[in-house]
User: Fold these one by one.
Assistant:
Number 1:
Amino acid sequence: MGISDMVIAVAILAAASYLLYISLWKKKGNCCGYGCSGGGCGKK
Amino acid sequence: MTAEALRKENIPAAEARVPQRGELRPVEKRTITVAVAGNPNAGKSTLINAIAGSRLHVGNWPGVTVEKKEASFEYAGARIRLIDLPGTYSLSPYTQEEIIARDYLVNERPDLIINVVDATNLERNLYLTVQLMDLGIPMVMALNIFDEAQAKGYRIDVGGIEKMLGIAVIPTSATKKSGLDELLKSAIATAKDPQGHLPQQLNYGEDIEMAADFIAGELIAGHPALIERYPRRWLLLKLMEGDGHVQKVTGFGGNLLEEALRHLKRAHGEDIEAVMAEARYALATGLTREVLQKPELPKTELTEKIDRVVLHRVFGIPIFLAAMWIMFKLTFDLSKPFADWIGAMISGPFKRLAEALLGAIHAPAWTVSLATDGVIAGTGNVLVFVPMIFAMMFFITFLEGSGYMARAAFVMDRAMHSIGLHGKSFIPMLLGVGCNVPAIYATRTLENPRDKALTALLVPLMSCGARLPVYVVFIGAFFPKHGGSVLWSLYMMGILLAIGMGFVFKKTLFKGEAPMFIMELPPYRMPSLRSLLIHTWEKGKHFLIKAGTYILAVSIMVWFLLNLPWGVEHKKDSYLGQVGAIVAPALKPLGFGTWEASSSLIAGLVAKEIVVGTMGEIYLKKEAANEAAKPSLGEELKEVGSSFLKAAGESAANITSTFGITSISAEEDAAKAAERSPLRAELKNQFTPLAAYAFITFVLLYMPCVVAAVAMVQEFGTWKWYGIAFGYQMFLAWGVACLVFQGGKLIGLGG
C-alpha cells in the first residue's frame, strides 16, 4: 500500500466517520416519521 | 423616553406618544400574536397549514423537544404571528404538552387565542374551551370540521355559542380551506378591540363562586401583585384546585385557602380538583345541549356497528391479530417482486457500472472493491428492502388513518393492565412497529414517569422497520412459502414478550397499579389516497436518509474492518473477523456460532439494517472478471425495464390471487431467486432453517440500536433506562434464540 493509497483510505474513513458523527450523534439519528408532529426525533 | 426628551428630539407628538399601560398600539402598527389552541385531532395542524402554508416555521419549545410551529405573515394590512400550541384536552399540568400550552398562555399572554374546536365532537372540545375562557384572553372559536358535522346531520347554533360564550365563532373546514378568511378577519377585529371581545366569565356554581370570591378578596387585600401578574380568574380557580405549581410560585395557601374551601369541601367532598372538573364538564354538557341538535338515528351508526365487532370482549384480540397478519402478508406479497428486482439491479447493472466508472478513471483496485464489495454490497443490500418498508408504512398509515389503530390500543387495554400499564401505553408501542425512536419520544404523552419509563423499556421489543430487511432476507432464503406467517410470528413474538417483560417489571422495578385513562376512539374514516401517500412517504423517507448517511458510513467502515490489516488473505483474519471469532462461541448454542454471523450482529449494533449490509460484505464472494460476458449499456437498460415490468406483474398477481405468493412454483422461484439474490443463496449454505429462525429472533430482541439509545438518554436525562434495556434485551435475545434452536432440535425440527 503506497502513500497515495493511504491518503485516500484515511480521507475516505475520515469522511465516513464525519458522516456517522453528524447523522447519528449530532442529528440524533433520523426520525422514522411517526410521532414527529408530537415533537420527537430530537429536532433542535 | 420621557416627554421632555421627546420634546428635545423634536419628534411629532402623535408618533411619539407612548402607549399607556393596558393600551395597545393599532393593529396596523404591531404584530398580532395569535395562539392556536385545541384538542388533538380537532384539525389544528391542518388549519394552521392551510392558513400559513410554506410560511410555517418548525422548531422546538424551549428546553424540550416538543415541536413548535410558528408563522408570521401579513393579512389585510395586519401582521399576524401564529403560534401553534400543542394539542391538549385540558390545561391541567400533567403532560408536557399541557404544561407548555398553559405556561405559554399564562406567561406570554398572546393577543388572542384561536380555539380550534371539532364540530363533530363538540362536548369534549368545549371542556378545553371552558378552561381557555378562564384565562380572560380574547378568543375566536374556529368551529372546525363543520362540513362533516353538517353531513352527519348535526345542527349547530353558531349564534347561540357566540351569545353564551361572548366570543366570535367561525365555522371552518381546514381540509377544504373554507372559513379561513372569515377566521382571520375575525381575529384582526378581535385584536383591534380586545376589551370588546373578552370571553364571558362562566359560572361554576354557587359554592365554587362563593369560595372564589373569598379568595379574590384575600388576594386583593394581601397579594395585589399576584392579581396583576396572573389572569385573575385562572389564578383563583387554580389555587382552589390545589395546583401545586401555582401554589408554589404564588406562595398562597395554608389556612386562608382552607377557610375558603371549607364549605365547598363539606358540600362536595375533599377532592376539589374533581369538583372543578365536574363543574367544567357540566358547563360543556349544558352548552352542548343548548346549541347542538343531533338527528335521531333510526339505526346504529356505522362506527358503532364496526366497533361492536372489533371491540368485542372475546373476538377483539383475535381480530387485531388477524388484521396484523393480513398486513404483513400483503406487505410481503406486494413488495417481494420489487425487492428482488432492486436486488438484481444492484448486484448486476449498478455493480458493473460502478466497476466501469472506477476503471475508467484508473482508480486503485482496492477502491473498486470498496465500492462494489463495501458500499454496493452493504448499502445496496439494505436498499433492496425499500419496497418492503414503504409497503408496510402504507398499510400502517392506512390502519392509523382509518381509526383502527386506536381500537387496537383499546382492545389491548386489558392485557396492558395486567402488566401495570393502560392501553394508552400501547400507542407508543404500536408506533414502535414503524421505528422505535419516535416511539420512545412518544412516551412523553403518558402522564406519570413510571408509565413513561416502563413503556420506553418495552418499546424496543416492538419489531421496527429496520429489522425488516434482516427478516426478509432470511425468510426469502428459508421460508419463501410462508413469508407472511413467519413475519407475523416475529411481530407477535415482540408483542407477547413485551407483555411478559412488562409483567416481570411490574413485579420488580415498577410496583403499583396502572392509572385509569379514558381513551379516545375517533370515528372510522376512509383515508384519502393523497394523505396515505404523503404519510407513507414521511415515514419511509427516513429509511432512505439512513441508507445514504450512517448505513453508508458503516458499510465503508465495515469494509475496512474486513480488509485490515492490509492485505489480509481471509476475512476471518481481519479485525472484524477476529472480534466476531471471539464472540462466536457465545452464539454457538443458538445455532449460529460463526464469526460471520457474530460480526454481522456486532455491526448491527449501530442500526439493525446494517446486519444485512455486513452479511452482504462478508458472504458475497468476489466475482471472477469476465469481460466477454458483460452486457452492453443498451442491454443493461433493456434488462432494467423488462425486469421491472415483470416484477410489477408478479406483485399484482400476488395481490389479486388473494394471498398468492405460494401460487408461484416454489422450486422454480427458489432457483431464480438464488440467481437474483446471491446473498440469500449463500445464507442457505451457512444456516439451517432452524438456525435462521433463531438468528432473526435474536435480531428482533437484541439491544436497541444506537439511535434508540440516544433517544432514551435524551428523553429521560439518564443512561439508567438504556442500561436496563440493554442488559435485559441481550439476556432475553440469547435466552429466546437458545430456546428456539435447542427446543426446535429437541422436537425434531432439524439442527
Number 2:
Amino acid sequence: MKAPVLTAGTETSRDHATKAPLPSAARRKGKSKSDGFWPWLFVVPTVVGIGVFYLWPMVQTFYYSFTKWGVFGGAKFIGLDNYTRMLADSSIPQSILNTLIYTAIVLLGIPAAVILASLIERPGMRFASLYRTLYFIPYVTMPAAVGIVWRLIYNGDFGPINWFLSLFGIHGPYWTSTPGFALLAVATVGLWMSLGFNLLIISAGLREIPRELFEAAEMDGASRIRQFFSITVPLLTPSIFFVTIVTVISGFQLFDLLYVMMGKANLAMPQTQSLVYIFYNQAFLQNDKGYAAAIGILILAIIALLTAFQFRIQKRWVNYV
Amino acid sequence: MSESTLAATARAESVPVGELAPNPSSARAHMPDAKSRSGKQGSNTVAHIVLGIGGLVMVSPLLYQIVMSLSTNTEVQSTPPTLWPSVIQWHNFADVFGSMNFGSQLWVTVAITVLRVIGQVLLCSMAGYAFARMRFRFKGPLLALVLSIIMVPSQLFLIPQYQIIQNLGWLNSIAGIVAPGIFSAFGLFLMRQFFMGLPDELEDAARLDGANPFQVFFRVMLPLAANGLWALVVITVLWSWNDLLWPLVVTSTANAAPLSVGLSNLQGEHSNNYPILMAASLMAMAPILIMFLLMQKRVMAGIGRSGLK
C-alpha cells in the first residue's frame, strides 16, 4: 500500500522539477495562445540560416544525385545513372572496406579506455588529473598539424618507428605510401586522437557506479580482476555503447588525417581512401558533383543503417540500471 | 547567482553524460573506503607504471615535434633519431613566417574562430531560449525540422553550400569560411536543453518588473546559462580552429586559407624542410593546447556535456 503512494509522490515532485516552466506557462495561456511576435525575433535568424545553409542544401543534394554536371555548369537529370555507376565502381566497396578496417582499429581504443579509466578512477589514485590531461591532449590537437608530425614519425628512411624496428632487425616499410600499411598508419593516429575522448566519457560513467558495489564485492573476497569483469564492465555498457556509436560515425567521416598524412598525389591513395575522400575528390577535384552527391547519400545511408543496427542490438549487451 | 547554484541547476537537468565532476577525488575523499584502498600501495604501483608509460606514449609525438622543431634538417634526418639538438635552432620559428603565409593564415584562423563563437553563442542561445521557454505557433514542427539535420553528415550540405558561397562572391574570404558555421542545430539543441533546466522564478520576477523578453533573456536568463555557453564555446573553438574540409573547399589561395589548409598544402612545396614544418605545425596547435591546459576542467566538461566535437 505504501509503495505506490511513495512512487506517486516522487513522480509528481520529479515532474515539478523537470517541467518547471509549466505553471507560469499555464497561467499565461489564459491570456493568449502564444508570446506574440517576440519568439520570432529570437528564432528567425537561426531558423532561416539553418534552412538556407542546411535544410535546403540537403534537398538539393538529393536532387543533384540524379543529375550529371556539364563542364560549364548546368545539371542534366539522368535518373539513377549515378547510382548504377556507383554499383559498378570498384573503388566504392574498396573504400567502404577501408573505412570499416579504420573503424575497427580505432574501436580498439574503447577496451583500452575502459582499462585505463578503471585505473585512473581508483579511489585515492594520485596524479589522476595529470593522467587525464596527458591522455586528453591528442584529442584537442589539429589533425592537419599533427598529421604532419606523424608523417615524419612514419618516415620510411629516418623515422623513429623504422629506427626502432631496425633494432630488432626488422626493415620497416614506407608506411604512408604502401597500400595496407598506410591504412594501418592512419588508423593508429585515429586511435591515438580519440582515446582521450573515450576515456573522458568512460571515466564519467565509471564515477556513476556506486562505490558500495565494489566494497560489497571486496568483502565477499572478489579480486580486482573479478570486480572489473563483474561490476565495472557490465555497468559501463551504456557509456561503452555511446562511445561505440560516436566512433563508428566519426570513422565514416574519415578525411583530415588521410588527406594530410598521405596527400593527394600519393599512389597508395586508391587502396587507402575513405568514402569522404572519394566524395571530396569527385565533387571538388574532378568537378563531378552529381556523382559526388550520390556518394554523399551513400554515406548517409551507411551511417543511418549502422547506427540503427547498433541501437537494435544494444539490448543484448547494454545494461541500463 | 553563485557558481554553486549554477552547478546545481546544471546537475538537476538530466544531461546524458552529465556534469563530469572534474574533481571526484574531493568528493570521494570523505568516504572511509578511500583510505583503506589507497593503503594498498602495492597494486597501485602497477597502475602508475601502466598509466605513466601510456601517458608518455600519448604525448611522445608532441615531444618529438618540439625537439625536431628546434633541430637542424640534418639532425631530423639522422638515425638514430636526435634526442636533443646540439645547438637549439630558435630561428626555425621565425623562418616559418618567411617560408609560408603563416601570418595571414593565423589571422584567418583566429578570425573565423572568433566570428563563429560570437555568432553561435548569440544565435544558438537566443533560438534555444525561445524553443525552451516561449510559446509560438509551429514551435514543435519547426524544432523537429531544425534538429533533423544533427545526425546528417556534412557531405550532404557541402556542394550546395559551396554554390551559395560562390554565388555570393565569397570564395577565398573570411565571410565565406565562416558563413555556414555560425548556424548550428547542435548548438541550438545544447542551449535549449540548458534553458529547459533553469528555474522559473527569476524569469517571472523580471517579467513582473516590466522587463521585455529581450531584457529578460540578456539580463536574467543568459547569465544563468553560463555553463551551457562554456560548453558551446569550447566545442565551437575546437571545431573552428581545427576544421579542414570546408575551408579547403572554399579557399584556393594561400593568403585566404586558414592554418589547417595551409599546413595540409605544405606537403609538396616544403616537404623537405622538416624543422620548419614541425615549427609551423607546433605554432598552429599551440593556442588550442595552451587554452586546454589553462582551462582543462571547462574544456573536458564542455566536450563531455556535448558528447561530440
